[in-house]
Amino acid sequence: MKLLLINPNTTQRITDTLVVQAQKAVGAAATVVGLTAKTGPAIIRSAEDNAVAVQSMLEMATSQHAGFDALILGVSMDTALQQVRASLPIPVVGMTEGGLLTACLLGQRVGCLTLGSQMASLYEQLSSSYGLAARVVKWHAPNISAAYETGPNPALIEALVKECEVLTDQYQAEVIVLCAAVLTGYAGWLAPHLRVPVVDAIEAAALQAVSLVRLRSV
Question: Could you state, in order of their start, the residue ranges of all structural domains in the chain?
Answer without folding.
Answer: 2-94+203-217, 97-201
